[in-house]
């Protein structure tokens, strides 16, 4: 069997008296997308920061691309890219200039060619000469992800990448993320949007109160709840149903889609 690209074992982290991570175990297979779901404060960003060598864990072990995050931080950093909740784009520069700047900082040859290739790959070629300040939210996020891929890192961490985006921009980013995995990039995606996890993830892990309480494919998670029956129509549980049932969170009543036919 192929070794996981990301492997986490019994990771713990506290900030003062607040225990954020309480023994997290997680594997991410090569070239796959794992969605890490959790409420605000569940510890998603803390785990990503540990894996990106920005924060040290209190206990446990973790490796990324075969390198131990505590013992080999430089090798880990060379293997990854991290995109946060807000696009790290210089709005004064054009899209092309943003890409060239990062290519030069990474000491790559032919930064012009690198920028042109990524603009084409992310459907930004026509906007490449425009200042990033004129970009839509989806375009800016695509540029941000393109910048993070300079140097072809095998692993990318996306920490709530569609926060604040409109529905169309979210779809554009979803397409970009799917293309990354199709090209062999391993993606760890944190999100609060359950539909995002449903659309993108090969596997879904639910982080609650500092531990992974469930981890599986969408189909496996849905099988955790019995199908609901409304008269003669069987309704399969959604990922939202599974998530809320597992974390024990209250939810507002919602009107189900009426799929019944009127009976004479």
Keywords:
single chain; 264 residues; alpha/beta; Rossmann fold; 6-stranded mixed β-sheet; 33% helix; 25% strand; globular
Can you describe what's shown?
There is one protein chain. With 264 residues, the protein is an alpha/beta fold. The protein has a domain at 6-86 and 154-160 and 182-247: 3-Layer(aba) Sandwich (Rossmann fold). Helix content is 33%, strand content 25%. A 6-stranded mixed β-sheet has the order 6-7-8-3-9-10, sandwiched between helices. A 4-stranded antiparallel β-sheet has the order 2-1-4-5, covered by helices on one side. Strands 11-12 form a two-stranded antiparallel ribbon. Helix 3 packs across helix 4 (111-121) and helix 5 runs parallel beside helix 6 (167-182). The longest helix is centred in the middle third of the chain and has 16 residues, at 167-182. It is globular. The termini are far apart.
Helix content: 25-40%
What's the N-to-C terminus distance?
A: 58 Å
Determine the structural class based on helices, strands and strand pairing: alpha/beta
Shape: globular
What is the CATH architecture assignment of the domain at 6-86 and 154-160 and 182-247? 3-Layer(aba) Sandwich
CATH superfamily of the domain at 6-86 and 154-160 and 182-247: P-loop containing nucleotide triphosphate hydrolases
Summarize the biggest pleated sheet: 6 strands, mixed
Q: How is the largest sheet built, in terms of strand order?
A: 6-7-8-3-9-10
Order of helices and strands: EEEHEEHEHHHEHEHEEHEEH
Q: Give the amount of beta strand, in percent.
A: 25-35%
Q: How many separate helices?
A: 9
Number of strands: 12
What would you report as the Rg, rounded to the nearest angstrom? 20 Å
Instruction: List unreliable stretches of 5+ residues.
Output: 253-264
CATH class of the domain at 6-86 and 154-160 and 182-247: Alpha Beta
What integer is the average pLDDT?
87
Looking at the structure, the CATH topology of the domain at 6-86 and 154-160 and 182-247 is: Rossmann fold
């Amino acid at each position: 069997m192929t070794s996981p690209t990301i492997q986490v074992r019994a990771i713990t982290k506290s900030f003062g008296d607040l225990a954020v991570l309480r023994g997290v175990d997680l594997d991410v297979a090569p070239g796959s997308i794992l969605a890490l779901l959790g409420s605000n404060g569940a510890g998603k960003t803390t785990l990503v920061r540990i894996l990106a060598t920005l924060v040290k864990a209190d206990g446990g072990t973790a490796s990324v691309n075969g390198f131990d995050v505590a013992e080999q931080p430089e090798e880990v950093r060379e293997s990854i890219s991290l995109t946060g909740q807000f696009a790290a784009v210089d709005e004064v520069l054009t899209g092309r200039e943003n890409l060239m700047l990062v290519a030069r900082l990474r000491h790559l040859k032919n930064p012009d060619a690198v920028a042109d290739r990524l603009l084409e790959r992310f459907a930004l070629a026509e906007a490449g000469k425009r200042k990033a300040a004129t970009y839509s939210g989806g375009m800016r996020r695509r540029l941000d992800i393109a910048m993070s891929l300079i140097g072809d890192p095998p692993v990318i961490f996306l920490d709530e990448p569609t926060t604040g985006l409109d529905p169309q921009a979210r779809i554009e980013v979803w397409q970009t993320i799917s293309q990354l995995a199709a090209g062999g990039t391993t993606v760890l995606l944190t999100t609060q949007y359950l539909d995002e996890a449903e659309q993108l993830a090969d596997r879904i892990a639910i982080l609650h109160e500092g531990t992974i309480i469930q981890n599986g494919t969408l189909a496996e998670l849905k099988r955790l709840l019995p199908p609901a029956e409304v008269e003669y129509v069987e309704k399969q549980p959604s990922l939202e149903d599974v998530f809320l049932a597992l974390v024990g969170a209250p939810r507002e009543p919602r009107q189900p889609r009426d799929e019944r036919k009127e009976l004479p």
